[in-house]
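new request in #modeling-help
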Amino acid sequence: MPGTKARRTLVLAVVAAVSVALSGCANSDREDTGGGDGNAASSKDTLVFGAAGEPKLFDPAFASDGETFRVLKQIYEGLVKTKQGSAEIEPALATKWEPSPDGKKWTFTLREGVKFSDGTEFNAEAVCFNFNRWYNFSGALQSPDVSAYWQDTFGGFAKNESPDLPTSLFKSCSTTGANTVAIELASPTGRFPAALALPAFAMQSPAALQKYEADKVTASGDTFEYPSYATEHPTGTGPYKLDSRDTASKTVTLVRNDDYWGDKAKIAKIVFKVIPDNNARKQELQAGTIDGYDLVAPGDIESLKGAGEQILDRPPFNILYVGINQKNPALAKLKVRQALAHAINREALVRSKFPPAAQVAKQFMPPEVGGYADDVTEYPYDPAKAKQLLAEAGEADLSLKFYWPTEVSRPYMPNPKEVFEVVSADLQKVGIKITPVAKVWNSGYLTDVSSGRADIHLLGWTGDYNDAYNFNGTFFGRVKPEFGFNNPAIFAAIAKADAIPDAAQRADAYKAVNRQIVDFLPAVPIAHSPPSLAAQSEVKDLFPSPVQNEEFSLVYTEGT
Amino acid sequence: MLRFVVRRLLQLIPILFGLSILLFAWLRLLPGGPAAALLGERATPERVAAINRTYGLDQPLFVQYWRYLQRVAQFDFGDSTQTGRPVTQVIIDQFPGTIELTIAALIFAVGVGIPLGYFAARRQGTILDNLAVVGSLVGVTIPVFFLAFLLKYFFAVELGWLPPSGRQDVRIDATHITNFFVLDGLLTREFDAAFDAVKHLILPGIALGTIPLAIIVRITRAAVLDVVNEDYVRTAEAKGLTTSVIRRRHVLRNAMLPVVTTIGLQLGLLLSGAILTERVFAFPGIGSEIVSAITNKDYAILQGVILLVAVLYVLINLVVDLLYGVLDPRVRVR
């Protein structure tokens, strides 16, 4: 068939011509790395870290999730930072700080000779530029998902656009010299300056913020666009700079900032590779294609250790609790809440369903936080006493809707189903009828629980910084439908403690608050669980941080 | 022929319109929403309401849908609530990966499936035939995630021959132009990058292609067995045609009709199978994107991506219909 043959030849000719033409146009962008093969960048100069998710954007003021923070912590620095392996703060861009006697005015002395990665100088004006930027956020920037940490820490803005927003705790920032700033607060708070270690309050280059129109976030209906500063041009003072983001292969590459003011990063390049599946992260580590990863499943810890990998446990800085909603009149009775606490065998639960280093919780903050009280009322496992308390309260036939989340694993609750099963069985043993309500975490669970639809539920919190308010204030600082109680005495005690300028006195006040809260028992504290990182055995100086603040600039691999 | 194609393409409009209404309503009627995903433990009723206001989710459903239609008419499919990235950009970034993976799976399924099915039929009742039949039964029943786990465990973790996941070694400084990594490697003459991308396609390609492979083996075998007993084959033999001509032009070509239908159907299934495979192999593509969009209730991404998959499904069926005509002049459309 000559026709077919001719057609085939024609097709081949066209394919060949197109290929030649395309390969003529396309040229490799690859820089000459000094070697012929693609593996020229030596693995010892590159650290590959397996992340569970993509960083959302690169403007820390708009960030609130761990995966975004992990990347931004290497690019940016704040006035203070946490000590490696601890939640204590230490100097970063500020070398020292001092409060006024009333705790309302804080004077920061800034480090000299620091430059942003765009070459502009870091100084007092830059600090005030950043604070004023956050304080003057308007429009979409006041949305609680965009400026989450500003709202958590300082409340509102210069001009609040929603009646739900409180008055801002921040009043003003003034430069008192080229390298000193004074920050004035409306009232003293223990959150300050501890919260300044959060990446959300990192210092950014005023020049770059203006050049790339960092505040031009546009929201119209369900479209939401971030400016190029947040997507391409992050400019901080940190030991690394953004090199590239490959959205097709889901990687973010950072390179060493050679002009960094402090000790230069030991590894030239860090690649954060997104591997959402936990098992895939583990296998990549075992295959040697990544050097470390976060959020190790508790079930994988032993097998990874057995294979010679490092398991780095973070000091537990979180809390899992069984929330109690006092909107249910039965649960408004203290004896019933006490019965729930006595009915749950927390010791057995923590030993059997949590990682080995997990601790049974006595109160709603981990022991590292200032204000932790050793002498709170304890509710040991005692089913007989639980039954007796229920009977005394006239609630022997108690029936509860127990909400638990599916399709989620949190650092404080690696496997919600197992926790639910154990707690549920314990409660049934003392005669409480349980109606289980399983909801998908993002599909109804969070909204139902936060709006008070559950009788009891599982929830928790990972601390952001070392201050008791970050735990107690978050849960019990005001009326919340999640707990359904109104206890002005507790609200006032927390607010009063938060406003004590002296750290030691504040800690004492919080101890009293903790005793008060545990006596009132608005929820049953269950566990503090240590999330783990895994790394190849040759990775050194990756210090697990309780607040996920690992500094990759300190890390090196054996042989580099 | 042209009229047939145009008619089929016009049918896409009501299909997409109906689907978009269903999808839009379904996503919003499910409990929860992007606010919970954005806030996590910070969720309070006031904050959820504030975010719903920001994203226009407090408006009546028909108002939201009308706004959506207006934008879609201008080819604006919205932005991801998680990252603010436009849906079209997400598709441009992620879809090439899924196409590469689907092609890899198809090459595996067709390249192995048709010859295996053919030879199993030619040697009916032999060990090869029995192995093919049993093997295809196992292939259909084995869960993708289990197969993926086994493949990764042996070939990536234990033997270290192939990478366990991803699309390309991140240590390779590859240039990406089209986001088809194999093609990019060839175009830029970074052959190591192209080879590495191919290596990353082998295990997920096999995992994704195993079910279609098993089905293609069975269908090919059955079709060939049907055809070899047809009168026209006997006539061709009687005419004295050579065996190779009979096999190629009479047996295989006629047997191909049901096989092509099957491949067409499987191609659609490959797209949905890619969701699981991409997840297990941490292979960045549209499937991984759908999974995280479902988790995060990212409405715009889900609407855009699912509509795209629907368009593809219709187009694949159209191509299959047209292929019938090429293979069998009796059903050629006019």
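bot summary: Chain A has 16 helices and 23 strands.
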